[in-house]
Amino acid sequence: MKIYYDENMPFAKEFFSELCQLDRGTNGHEQGELVAFSGRALTAEQVADADVLLVRSITEVNEQLLHLNEKISFVGSATIGTDHVDLTYLEKRNITFHSAPGCNAISVAEYVLSALVVLAERYLFDLSSLTVGIVGGGNTGTRLSEKLAALGIRYKICDPLLEKKQAEQSTVNTTDGSVDNRAYVPLSDVLACDVISLHVPKVEGGEHPTYKLLNAENLALLRDDQILISACRGDVIDNHALLALKKAGHGVKVVLDVWQGEPNVLESLISYTEIATAHIAGYSLEGKARGSEMLYQALCQQLVIPPKYQLTDFLPSASIPAIEINQDFNQILLNQLVKMVYDVRRDDAIFRQQLFVQGFDNLRKNYPVRREFSAVTVTLLSNTFSDVPHRLGFSKNV
Question: Is 309 part of any known ligand binding site?
Answer without folding.
Answer: no
